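Subject: for your reference before the review

Hello V.,

The reviewers asked for a structural picture of the protein, and I figured it would be easier to keep everything in one thread rather than splitting it across files. Below is the amino acid sequence we used in the manuscript, unchanged from the supplementary table.
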Amino acid sequence: MGYHNTTHPEFLDDGSKARATKNNQFNDISQQEFAPDRVTSDLFPTLWKPQTVQYPYERLEDMEPWLFVPGNYNGRIGVIWETCTACKLCVSACPNDCLHMTTELRVDVLDGADGEHGGLGAELEVGGYAAQLIPEVAENIDDFNHVTAHADTPDQWRFAEVLDLSGDTATVRWNDSGMEQEIEQSDLFVADDQIVSGRIDLGRCMFCGLCMEACGFTSFFMTNEYDGMSGFTRQDLWFDASRTRVLPSVHQEAVDAELAKRANKERDKRAKKAAKAKAAAEEGA
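And here is what came back from the structure prediction:
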C-alpha cells in the first residue's frame, strides 16, 4: 500500500509490496483515533510517519490540500500588479535583494472598475495610454491556474498611445503593431505607465514573506506554487512580471477591499475639489 492506502505498482517492486502489506495495519487510517501532530488535517489522522510523496506521480496539493489554503504555505512570490502603487517598500524589506522593480504599462484596479466604483478612475488624455480587453483571453483567464501552469499569466490587455480624442471616439496607435485606429472611448480603459513591475530572482529568494508583510496595498502574496521554479542556469530563475503576476480573481476579496479604499479616497478628493471651487465662485460673485 502506498500513500494514504493507495497502491502504486509503477514504483513498488515485489519486496516493497511485501513490506507494505506486512505493515498495512499501521497505515490503515480507519484504525487511528488520535494524531497530535496532524490535528488540522482530515485526510491524515495517523500517528505513523507517512511514506514519501512520489513526486511527480503524486501531487502535494492532492495529498495535503490543507497546505494550499492561502496563507498556510509560502511558495513562489505572486504580485497583483493592478493594485501596486510603486512605493517599493517590498524592495526595501527584502533581505536578499531579489526584487528588481521598474515601471510598465498596466491598468490600475480603480481605472478598470465598474459598478458602484465605476467612473472614479483617471480619464483618457491625448499623449497618454489606453488599454483594450482582448476578448478571447478575458473569457478564459479565470480558468488559468498559476500553481500548476508554470507559465506566464495571460495578459488580457492590449495597449496603445492616445493620439486624439474627438467626441465619443479616440484615435490610438497600438503598441504591438504600430497601426493607428479610431475606436469608441467606451471600449477603452486608461492605462498607466507608472505602475511598477519587474523581475524577481527566485534563486536568491528564501520565501520569508517579508515583502508580503511590507506591502500596504494588498499587492504581494506568497502563492502555493512549489514546483516549476528550477532551471539549468541562474537566468532561468529570473521571473519577469508576466511570470510572477497573480490574477486579481485569485484574491478577489483583498482586491475588492483595496478598490473600495481607493474609490472612497477619490470620492473625498473630488468632494473637496468641488467644495473649493464652489467657495471660490461664491467669493467672486
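For the response letter, the relevant points are probably these. The chain has a mean pLDDT of 76. The two ends are 89 Å apart (CA to CA).

Happy to draft the paragraph if you're swamped.

O.
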